[in-house]
Amino acid sequence: MALVMIFHMLFSIALAVTVSIMSPSPLSLAKSDNLGFSVDLIHRDSPVSPYNHSLTPFECIGIALRRSSNRVNYFKLASLSAQAVSTEVIARDGQYLMKMAIGSTKFSFLAIADTGSDLTWIRCSPSTWCYKRKAPLFNPKRSLSYEVIPCNSKKCKSVPGSFCSRNGTCSYLVMYGDKSFSHGIVGTETVLLDSSARKPASLPGIIFGCGYHNRGTFSESASGIVGLGGGEVSLVSQMGSSIGGKFSYCLVPLLSQNTYSSRMHFGAKAKVVGKQVTTTPIIPTSMKTFYFLGLEGFSVAGRRLEIYDSSSSSPTDTFGAFKKLPIIIDSGTTLTYLPSNAFTKLELAVREAVKSRPIGDPQNRLKLCYRYNKTLALPIIVAHFTGANLTLNPMNTFLPTGPGVLCLAFLPDDNVAIFGSVAQMNFLVGYDLAKKTVSFKPTDCTKK
Predict the structure, then answer these.
(1) pLDDT level of residue 198 (50, 70, 90 thresholds)
(2) What are phi and psi of 148, to 5 degrees?
(3) Is 45 a catalytic residue?
(4) What pTM does this model have?
(5) Residue 114 a catalytic site member
(6) Which of 45, 93, 114, 361 is flagged as catalytic?
(7) Which terminus of the chain is less hemmed in, N or C, by CB atoms within 10 Å?
(8) DSSP one-letter code for 163
(9) How far is residue 147's CA from residue 255's CA, in Å, rounded to a whole number?
């Protein structure tokens, strides 16, 4: 097994995004059919990232594990009610940054790209600031394309957490698990997917939030949130037929981030086709923001493990003849989280398959670790989704948490199940929101 590769896959922590439009002229996505364009994803800790602090690889891993824990806390809060999903987003722990522009002034900024939220919002001027910031502010009064939305309009009602202000404009309030918040006015604006080499693609009339009152532990270098969830007002949903409801991404392994960029694709460029493609349906739930898949179980070294056996009593019985676990697929969460019973089964199977003696995690966060040496043989793990068997190599299931130490990149959690970014590396992961499916294709993501 190519275990050396594991030490070259610092999972994606946070990525800055630059857009490369596949056309030499200005484009209006609203008037285009299935337009194809791609996005370069730059690792948060790469030399060109605004977050580059010259951290060691293992320091990056430690920070990433803490972010993963914070991200899970958000999903726990959101799962308490469908309304909570709509009114809470995570700002400080997002995994990706997206470079874009807005308005007739072509105001350029970085925002956190989040598949776990819907509303796109940006910090606006004048603003009340109660935290450090390096990011500039957007002044909507200087933009000719900016429009305020009336509070009694259909557009206003489509925004979760919206309400009428005293002057009759549509306002929003998004709350965070750490008591951070953003409050402002809902409007429409032209969003530009910017490119330094080519003309930008233009998305007119995008519903977004202009945040005038923001408090909490937001990122210093990001100006807001780009909502890429499954809800009605997410940027992906508002693009609609112009991208055919399709987007995909391909996350490069670890230290490859210094040489190669990950990629995100939209429209025709987002198609996932080929002999090795495996596809699973997105499970419909009341929490439309999140993308849920049906996980039936795992195989470890050829041994099948069901999430729920025939004696299990679970509210997931209604998802089919075989009991399935609704699991959120999320590129913003590092690790994969499973219910305690399922995690215990998986951990025991890995212990039985690996002949070496387990050791402690230097980060004191992961449960099962081994000392790396030439004799260490890690098993192949297969994730069994509805209609799809996804073969995970050791680089998808183990993380280097210290010199010569590899740890299982799974943790138990009885409140939320998440299929995280480490498990998705070196796969082309495609979302088809029209067909309600997610497809996977084994891919060398270092190759364009």
Answers:
(1) low
(2) -80, 145
(3) no
(4) 0.81
(5) yes
(6) 114
(7) C
(8) E
(9) 44
